[in-house]
Amino acid sequence: MNLRFLLLTFILFISIALQAQNVVTPGEEAQNTSDQPYQNSAEAMLNANGKLGIGGYGEVHFNQPLNKDQRDLGTVDVHRLVMFLGYNFSKNTSFVSEIEFEHAKELWVEQAFLQHKLSKHINFRAGLMLVPMGIVNEYHEPTTFNGVERPTIDSRFAISTWREIGAGFSGNILPASLKYQLYVMNGLNGYDTKGTFTGAAGLREGRQKGAKAYTHSPSLSGKIEYYGVKSLNVGVSVYSGQSQSRLFNKLHNDSTNLINRADSSIVGISMFGADARYKLGGLELRGQFYYTSFANTLEYNKFTTVNGKRNDLGQSMIGYYVEAGYNVLRHCNKTTQELIPFVRYEFYNTHNSVDEATVQNIAYENVMITTGLTFKLHKNAVIKTDLQFTKSANATEYSKVINAGIGVMF
After folding, report:
1. Radius of gyration over every alpha carbon of the chain, rounded to an integer in angstroms
2. What confidence score (pLDDT) does residue 253 get?
3. 29 φ, ψ (degrees, to nearest 5)
4. What CA–CA distance (Å, rounded) separates 199 from 350?
5. Which candidate, 243, 198, 197, places its Cα nearest to that of 361?
6. Is the peptide bond before 161 cis (omega within 30 degrees of 0)?
7. What count of other Cβ atoms lies within 10 Å of the Cβ of residue 201?
8. What is the mean pLDDT of the chain?
9. What is the DSSP letter of 211?
10. How would you classify the pairing of strands 244-245 and 189-191?
11. Fewer beta carbons under 10 A from the terminal one: N or C of the chain?
12. Does residue 328 lie in a domain region?
């Protein structure tokens, strides 16, 4: 996927939106984004009535590794406590912010953007925004997914929670049941005083999170979702750009050697994602797929060598999961609570392909099976427990972790 593809896709769907304004029937004029089957906290706040909007979510976790050969300490953690604050200046202009405490000590601003409605189908957004990749990066409130921890590929590929500063457009094309987003954003940090991308961690350490982020070339991120079939939501997302490097700071145009050195510290990134969610009665199905390719890894890995050990960022990464759950309390007429046994199968490989100088590490190819229970006391209050089995391609048996936790959203 390249930048031209993203721009052409955006122009195409804007054209459809403008055409759709001429074919909307009187009954359709009353529709709004609440027709979508899924909304996150920020969307709910933007669609709410009134001036000031307040909300939030939180989750507390317990994690205990199970190892037959040794005893391991478990951990208990106030993983996240988040407050949403929004303000509607008018029916067209709003501000949304998300302030997050992690692990009871780290403070982050996760979202802070201004939205202005240009027309029924087009919104302009600018500020610190979530990168629209996959499901969990945008719908990460603990009551919206099964399992205590977020799916692993959402931390290895969409690097949840991934947010950057940028500007762009979003909206809903109601007659076509389509939601779109397209943003120009600052890129990931690939090199400050050392390389941040590796085969083991992927891109995760490259998030700049809007914290004095530096940029020398923009990135593009876009997503299109279709929700025209009842209880079905299908999305396709793309991301394209170059990583950022501090070596481009105060770099004279005639400094050929320094320019070549700086060029060796950047990586071209092209990411494709597809996701689907579906509900039928008590049955819940969802799945995600990611593919990421990198350019210039040969030079980047050589340049970011540390103490004689060559870096091992791969040329491509691939990952996916499929999940099924069923609300066994669905047929109990006297309760609105839900008890959902679920199972999720995950696969990811951060060394799907490598450059000619990098040895493919099969330890980076992993299968993870997560099975457990989600008990919703209320649609916005949940108790969770699960057992995770993980095995890399070079292991002979699965490692096991038992997790439990609570989550709320309001």
Report:
1. 22
2. 85
3. -65, -25
4. 6
5. 198
6. yes
7. 15
8. 90
9. S
10. parallel
11. C
12. yes
- The CA-atom distances, in angstroms, between 176 and each of 21, 78, 103, 226, 382 are 11, 42, 42, 8, 34
What's the pLDDT at 6?
A: 45
Contacts of residue 47, defined as CB under 8 A and 6 or more positions apart, other chains included, come to 32, 33, 34, 39
In this structure, what CATH number is given to the domain that contains residue 127? 2.40.160.10
pLDDT value at position 158? 86
42 occurs within a structural domain: no
Q: What is the pLDDT of residue 43?
A: 83
241: in domain: yes
Our count of domains for the chain comes to 1
Contact at 8 Å (CB) between 258 and 252?
yes
DSSP notation for 88-100: ESSSSEEEEEEEE
79-84, long-range: CB < 8 A, 24+ apart: 79/103, 79/405, 80/142, 81/56, 82/56, 82/57, 82/58, 82/110, 83/54, 83/55, 83/56, 84/41, 84/42, 84/45, 84/53, 84/54, 84/55, 84/56
Question: Residue 294: which domain range?
Answer: 3-23+57-409
CA-CA distance, 212 to 152, in Å (whole number)? 28
Would you state the structure tokens that stand for residue 164, as one six-digit string? 């950057």
Count the neighbouring beta carbons within 10 Å of the beta carbon of residue 228.
Answer: 12
Report the alpha-carbon angle 378-44-109, nearest 5: 100
Output the pLDDT for position 35.
57
- Beta-carbon contacts of 122 under 8 Å, excluding residues fewer than 6 positions away, are 14, 17, 169, 171
Beta strands in 118-217 (DSSP E): 123-130, 163-173, 178-186, 189-191
Q: What share of the chain is helix, strand, coil (3-state, %, to 5)?
A: 15, 50, 35
Q: What pLDDT score was predicted for residue 36?
A: 65
Residue 219 forms part of a structural domain: yes
Helix (H, G, I), strand (E, B) or coil at 26: helix
Residue 57 burial class via C-beta count within 10 angstroms: exposed 0-12, middle 13-18, buried 19 and up? buried
Cα torsion through 327, 333, 336, 338, rounded to 10: -20
299 Cβ neighbours under 8 A, 6+ residues apart: 263, 264
Would you give the DSSP letter of residue 147? S
How confident is the model at residue 334, as a pLDDT?
86
Beta strand ranges found along 141-231 (DSSP E): 163-173, 178-186, 189-191, 218-226
Length of the chain, in residues = 410
